[in-house]
Amino acid sequence: MKILTNDVVIKTMNLSDMQTALDWADSEGWNPGLHDAEAFYYSDPNGFFIATINEKPAGIISAVAHDDKYGFIGFFIVKPEYRGTSLAMLLGKTAFAHLGNRNIGLDGVPARLENYRAFGFTVAHQNTRYAGIASGSSDPRSIPLYDIPFDQLLSYDLKISGFNRRIFLSHWINQPGSHALAWPDKEGNPIGYGVIRPCRMGYKIGPLFACNDQIARVLFDNLCHRVKGEQVYLDVPEPNACSTEMAHEAGMTPVFSTARMYSKYSHVTEEKSVYGITSFELG
């Protein structure tokens, strides 16, 4: 490893720096959403870092503290000319320092798994991104998500994600050009919901949460129907066999895979209810 002797400065990003992060993520093939910046940034404004060398951007990383027990690392990108140097280690140390003693999650690409294992991370499961052309159908049993009181949505989301995503979801479900649907029970409480949002290429579904396979399938079909004929993506967690079946039945094909890793223990409270991952950047 080459130890950098240049003037490396790592600083906290501001909101405008997020555009750099999203552009770099796009160049890596991650296909971020067109309007992800605010949802990501305001989840933890102190958790996004950019490294400069000689005052030019050289690397980025995010370390979002979702609460006092759990954080997530993403946007870990070093410019090609600095790969194999100590810059990645410097960024990693910055992220770990910000997250402290929290359990940390991340989605690692296969080529980097050994690097993360060296820092004590273990693989919980595989994820696969699927892509296809949206078709789907309309079903009146799903309703617009805005018909569900926000606090009821948060309560349901907390049961599955394991942490309060109030700030994140307040931005995420209201992105321009997005569609958000819910499935209520007899009392009007959500027992499934999903969001589809415009990305640099096509649309991406996430999250897709449901208490059973039937509800997940209806929400998936309804969301696809909203963007019929467009390219659509779904990030599928390997433990959910129904989600993989849905993707195949919709004619979707695998694009790439990641491994969900944790520093201490698997964090998701109800993994069986996750049919589509919210994002690879924030978990």
Q: What is the helical fraction, as a range of percent?
A: 25-40%
**Total number of helical segments?**
8
Please give the domain count. Answer: 2
CATH architecture of the largest domain: 3-Layer(aba) Sandwich
Give the termini distance in whole angstroms. Answer: 30 Å
Layout of helices and strands, plus pairs?
Layout: E1 8-12, H1 18-27, H2 37-41, E2 48-53, E3 56-65, E4 70-78, H3 87-99, E5 103-108, H4 113-118, E6 122-133, E7 143-144, H5 150-161, H6 166-172, E8 179-184, E9 190-198, E10 203-210, H7 213-226, E11 231-237, H8 241-249, E12 253-262, E13 274-276
Parallel strand pairs: 4-5, 10-11
Antiparallel strand pairs: 1-2, 2-3, 3-4, 5-12, 6-11, 6-12, 7-8, 8-9, 9-10, 10-13
Describe this structure in words.
This protein is of the alpha+beta class and 283 residues long. The protein has 8 helices and 13 strands. Strands 1, 2, 3, 4, 5, 6, 7, 8, 9, 10, 11, 12 and 13 form a 13-stranded mixed beta sheet that branches. The longest helix has 14 residues, at 213-226.
Properties at a glance:
single chain, 283 residues, alpha+beta, Aminopeptidase, 13-stranded mixed sheet, 8 helices, globular
Please summarize what this structure is.
Helix content is 27%, strand content 33%. The protein is α+β, with helices and mostly antiparallel strands.
